[in-house]
């Protein structure tokens, strides 16, 4: 009898989950343009005191979170470490380096339910700019889908992280490329929202009238207009580094970007 009850409960739970994900969530997405839920971690992982202190010292984003959301942020950091390998090229990988890289990624994807993607499995770090085999040139950073790698010059990553008002952040820039590629190919709830709003965001690049207005205001650096991939990465750098100026200069575009990554400032 006990086994029969357990089986009934199990099947009932599975049936309920099917209804939630196939009926309730699509309707919720349609009405509110965001996933039904973002964070649910039955066995939440914690950071040690030293790792937590790095977040406190280095990420104002983390400090603005509620206590509950700080535990979510820390859990995602732990999962990042479990899923991605750090490789140092002529440089020793330290815990500080790992925390800064992981924290940047988690900050960018914090409003998305599916945040661990399989487009990369390693982070390769060089001391400074390095020779890339992709185009035979020296790079500061890149996303290499064939190698399933994110590559950073640590000198430039650190400069982008430390200088928070110049709208140049190598970590955010390269991880934005990953997020872009993932959401163009995936059909999870967060990717659907991202793709829907991305179509609104990219109009500011492709529509001549909107594009001219952006250039006239001279808020985004010129590299944004190289192509749609760089456009997205550059505006996300601006979004996180100077959000108040962004919102004041381009309120509609800011709202689209906010909805695209389901970002809610604490």
TrEMBL record:
User: In this record, what's one Pfam family?
Assistant: Peptidase_M90
Cellular component terms per the entry's GO annotation? cytosol
- Which InterPro entries does the protein's record reference? MtfA_fam, MtfA_N
Q: Which domain of life does the protein's organism represent?
A: Bacteria
Quote the SUPFAM superfamilies the UniProt record gives. Answer: Metalloproteases ('zincins'), catalytic domain
Molecular function (GO) terms for this protein are: aminopeptidase activity
Q: Which PANTHER family match?
A: MTFA PEPTIDASE, PROTEIN MTFA
Query: This chain belongs to which protein, by name?
Result: Zinc-dependent peptidase
């Amino acid at each position: 009898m006990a086994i029969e009850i357990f089986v009934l409960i199990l099947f009932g739970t599975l049936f309920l989950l099917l209804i939630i994900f196939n009926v309730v969530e699509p309707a919720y997405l349609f009405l509110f343009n965001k996933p039904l839920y973002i964070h649910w971690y039955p066995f939440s992982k914690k950071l040690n005191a030293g790792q937590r202190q790095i977040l406190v010292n280095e990420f104002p984003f983390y400090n603005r979170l509620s206590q509950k959301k700080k535990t979510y942020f820390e859990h995602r950091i732990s999962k990042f470490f479990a899923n991605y390998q750090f490789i140092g090229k002529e440089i020793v990988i330290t815990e500080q380096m790992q925390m800064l890289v992981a924290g940047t990624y988690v900050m960018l994807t914090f409003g998305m339910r599916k945040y661990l993607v399989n487009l990369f499995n390693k982070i390769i770090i060089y001391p400074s700019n390095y020779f890339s085999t992709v185009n035979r040139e020296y790079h500061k950073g890149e996303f290499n889908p064939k190698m399933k790698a994110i590559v950073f010059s640590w000198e430039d990553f650190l400069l982008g992280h430390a200088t928070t008002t110049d709208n140049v952040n190598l970590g955010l820039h390269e991880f934005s490329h990953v997020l872009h590629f993932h959401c163009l190919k995936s059909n999870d709830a967060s990717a659907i929202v991202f793709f829907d709003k991305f179509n609104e965001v990219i109009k500011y690049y492709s529509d001549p009238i909107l594009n001219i207005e952006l250039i006239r205001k001279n808020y985004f650096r010129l590299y944004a207009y190289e192509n749609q991939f760089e456009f997205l990465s550059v505006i996300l750098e601006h979004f996180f580094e100077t959000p108040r100026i962004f919102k004041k200069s381009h309120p509609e575009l800011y709202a689209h970007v906010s909805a695209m990554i389901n970002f809610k400032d604490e």
